[in-house]
Structure formats: structure tokens, C-alpha cells
Amino acid sequence: MTTEADTFPSPFRGQRVLVVGATSGIGHGIALAFAHAGAQVTATGATEAEVAAAQAQADHPSIAFEPLDVRNDASVASRFGALNRLDVLVNCAGIIQRGQEHDPAVFARVVDINLNGSMRTCAAARDLLKGSGGCIVNTASMLSFFGGGLVPGYSASKGGVVQLTKSLAIAYAADGIRVNAVAPGWIATPLTQALQDDAARSAPILARTPMGRWGTPQDVAGPVLFLANKAQAGFITGVVLPVDGGYLIT
User: Fold this and answer.
1) What is the mean pLDDT of residues 181-193?
2) Sequence-separated (6 or more) residues with CB below 8 Å from residue 185
3) The dihedral formed by the CA atoms of 17, 20, 23 and 26, expressed in degrees to the nearest 10
4) Confidence label for 5 from pLDDT (cuts 50, 70 and 90)
5) What CATH number does residue 82 fall under?
6) What tens digit of pLDDT does each residue of 58-89 get?
7) In sequence order, what are the residues at sequence separation of 6 or more whose Cβ sits closer than 8 angstroms to the Cβ of residue 190?
8) What is the spatial distance between Cα 25 and Cα 10, in angstroms, rounded to a whole number?
9) What's the longest Cα–Cα distance across the chain?
């Protein structure tokens, strides 16, 4: 019996998607969206504890949670070496240490996770994505474009993600791999909870955002699926797409 799913198949049905940094927040929203679109999704977390917490709240059977420390070359090589196919890599692993990033050691840690970690996973995924004609979607930020006095490491790392995305889009094009990024604005996640809870800091953010609200992980997931969809975005590479409710234009 023919079903609606057979008549209108998902572009991601049967595809293998790896979302790095997806046990909560934006990454988890993206992993869930891909799973609902028919993909087989692996979602990683930095620690066993993060993975266990995500597994306890698992909300889709097509998502497998696994640990991955993007700072560790051997861990990254082992994770990707275990894959026999990959169609989409989404890099969402990231930290922010407000008020602490002027310490060079903290600065280096933030850059190592947010920027170097993305490079490690992109490089490890290249051969797999070449084989499938797949793509990469990185996660930049509004602070890719603005300075952040309290977060120089985060701002520098996310500015680097923009240039990494553009550079790899050029380098990987001959392999048939597209490389793009989204730049989320102010998204309601655990990472921004302190800002959401502080009316004195939240009010100016909402006042500057033309759409007048915090974004959600689902708001980011849709553009990521668009960029990953070869039928819709097959001639798009090197793009950094703001998902910010208009914050950048004000």
C-alpha cells in the first residue's frame, strides 16, 4: 500500500547525519529535525554524563547518542573511522565562558573547542563526504560579526568559523562537498539561560531584534536542513546564513 511518505519521500530518508554537540540546545534541535525528516542521526556530546542525560530523555528512535571530545585527535579519528557512510556533518560543539576569556588559558580552550574542533571534524569527514557527495554545515554566531568584550575567545573562534567555512568551501568543492554555516542570533538555550533570566540584559537584546523574541533551536534547524538539502541548496556553498530575527540589520 502506497503511503504519503512513499509519494513524497523525505530528501534525507536513508541518509546518515552526524551532529556534533547535540545533546542539548541548538544541536539537539537540529538532530531532532533531521531524525523527523527520515535521517539516521548520530548526536554527540562532550562527556559520558551529557550523553547519558540525553539518552534518558531520548525523543526520537533514529537518534543515537555517543561521546566525542572534539579536542582529542584520536577520539575524532576513531569516531569517523567507525563510519562507513556519512551524508551530512553539522558542527555545533561549542562553549562560552563569559568574563573568563581574557585569561589566555581559557581563551585557548574556547578556541580549541569552537574553532579547532570544527576543523578536526571537517578534516576527518572529508573522505566520507566525498564518497557520498555530502555536505557540512558549521555553526557561526552573531559574534562572528561583532566584538564581545566579555567573550574574546568565543568571538574570535566564531569569526574563525566564518573564514573556515569559506576556505573549506573552496578547498572541498572539487570533492563535490558543499560547506556552509548558520549564524544564530539570540537563541533560547541553556547556553543563554543567564541572559534570558536577567531582565536588564534581555531587554536590550529583544529591543534590537526586529522580530521581538528569542529564537528557538527549531528556528535554526530549518535553515540547516535547507542548506543540507541538495535539491534546494545544491549550488550554495561558502554561505554564512544569519538566523537572528533581524538582529544584524539594526
Assistant:
1) 94
2) 142, 209, 215, 242, 243, 244, 245, 247, 248
3) -90
4) very low
5) 3.40.50.720
6) 778 889 999 999 999 999 999 999 999 999 99
7) 24, 25
8) 24
9) 63
Query: Does 144 score more than 80 pLDDT?
Result: yes
Residue from 32, 137, 27, 148 nearest 86 by CA: 137
Residue 154: active-site member: yes
What is residue 23's DSSP assignment? S
| Count of structural domains within the chain | 1
Residue 151, helix vs strand vs coil = coil
The DSSP H or E segment spanning 88 is: strand 88-91
Overall pTM surpassing 0.85 (yes/no):
yes
Q: In this structure, which amino acid lies at residue 33? A: A
Q: Helix crossing, 117-132 with 73-81: angle to 10°?
A: 20
Whether residue 197 lies inside any domain: the answer is no
In this structure, is residue 207 part of a structural domain? no
Which entry of 12, 80, 154, 172 is annotated as an active-site residue? 154
**3-state class (DSSP) for residue 11:** coil
- CA nearest neighbour of 18 among 37, 38, 39, 4: 39
d(CA 143, CA 151): 9
| Structural domain includes residue 250 | no
* 184 close to 244: Cβ distance less than 8 angstroms: yes
User: What whole-number distance in Å separates Cα of residue 27 and Cα of residue 32?
Assistant: 9
Is residue 165 within 8 A of residue 140, CB to CB? The reply is: yes
The domain containing residue 108 runs over which residues?
9-188+217-242
- pLDDT at residue number 11: 87
Nearest to 20 by CA among 48, 41, 37, 40: 41
Q: Does residue 225 fall inside a structural domain?
A: yes
